[in-house]
Design brief:
The protein is mainly alpha-helical and 181 residues long. It has seven helices and two strands, in the order H-E-E-H-H-H-H-H-H. It has a domain of 68 residues: Arc Repressor Mutant, subunit A (Orthogonal Bundle). Helix 5 runs antiparallel to helix 6, helix 5 crosses helix 7 and helix 6 packs across helix 7.
């Protein structure tokens, strides 16, 4: 029985002793160049002073609350003004970029031959008199029809390719019309 009571007394004391004050050993090493060998090596740091402070979480939060009533301090007016000007500049940049992309998209040339042939077919169908004039030998009609193609594509048609395809289509129309007469 005495043994049991002895162990029951020693066990709590040993647990409390482990949580209480004691000695803490801290070792630190620094990587330095050895001047003799030119290689990096670890050297112990001597006389390193380490001070452990007691930590009281509640005390820290109380001091923070006393220093600032709100969890986040107020932003200085100069900083808020700078932030607003940056936001305005970013917005202006995005708008300018959107306009640039829109104009770039508008300025891209239509070089797809099939699409150009469809547009040329539409223009020729809408202007049968011009086709008849071309068949009669009036070359000036080509300029008018090119203007119609460019108007229909809002200037996006590749002019060289459109002119080539237009002349091919007019030649086909001329042959088809000449064969019927």
């Amino acid at each position: 029985m005495k043994r049991r009571s002895l162990w029951s007394a020693i066990l709590p004391l040993s647990i409390l002793a482990a949580c209480g004050p004691g000695e803490l050993v801290v070792t630190a090493e620094v990587e330095r160049m050895n001047p003799e060998t030119g290689e990096m090596e670890l050297r112990p740091v001597e006389n390193l002073a380490v001070q452990l402070l007691p930590f009281d979480r509640d005390h820290i939060f109380d001091s923070l609350t006393a220093a600032a009533d709100t969890p986040e301090p107020q932003m200085p007016p100069e900083l808020a003004q700078a932030r607003d000007s940056i936001i305005a500049a970013q917005t202006e940049w995005r708008e300018a970029e959107a306009q640039w992309l829109e104009q770039r998209e508008r300025l891209q040339q239509i070089s797809d031959e099939q699409r150009l042939e469809e547009l040329i077919g539409q223009v020729l169908d809408e202007n049968p008199d011009a086709v008849v004039d071309y068949a009669a030998g009036k070359e000036r009609v080509v300029g008018f029809l090119m203007g119609q193609i460019m108007q229909k594509t809002q200037g996006q048609a590749n002019p060289q390719l459109a002119n080539e395809k237009l002349r091919e289509a007019l030649a086909e129309e001329k042959e088809a019309g000449g064969g019927e007469d």
